[in-house]
Every structure is written in C-alpha cells, then in structure tokens.
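FIELD: query
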Amino acid sequence: MSTQDPTNSVPLFHSPADTGYKLLELSPELVELLDSESPPALTLHSTPTAAILKTPTGKTYSLRQKNTSNALILLQTTPESAPNTGLDAITTVHETIELVPEAGEAPAPRAKGKWHEKFGRGR
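FIELD: result
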C-alpha cells in the first residue's frame, strides 16, 4: 500500500517534444563571461575533424559529445490552459556536449575510446 499523500503530489505527464536537445557543459570562466553586464557573442566554427567554439578574447574550445548512462529528463511546467497542472517530461537526454580548451588554432585529436585501446591495436 502506498504511503504517499495524493493531495500533496505533483502530477507528471509524458509530453515528448519534437525538438532535439543537447546539454552543453560550460566552464566557470565561460559562465562568468556570459553572465557579465555585456555578454559577448560566441561563434561556432566547423573543421574537418571537430567543431570549435571561439570567444572574442581568443580562447578556443573543441566540442566533444559524451554519452551518459544516467537518464537526464527535461521537465517543464504544464501550460496554465491545461486541464491538469503539473510537470511535463518533454525529453530524455543521453548525450552531453563537453567543451575542451584548445592550446592553439588546431583542434585536439579525437579520442578513440576504450574499445580501440583494447582491441584496435592490431588493425
């Protein structure tokens, strides 16, 4: 038997959105830059091997996709016009984007992963 009081509960609905979401991990330096009085525009550049994020101060970051085994569920409140108020689960995120600081203009080499380290040496 449930011990939860249904009068104090928040209903959870599944309302998947057609939009694909990616979470971007920002360094404290970038957060500070974007929270400043006059936040600068950041630019994305494509290279044959990676995507690069550039700041006006000359810093460059490679974008790397990371998979996660934990479910990251994005929630939003239901619209006020909805018959029931609560939370909508709009998507589950399985990958995040990591920013890796770059020393120069050239992007860092791509990681080959654990499988390649273990089995791919003889190829």
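FIELD: remark
The first strand starts at residue 12 and ends at 14.
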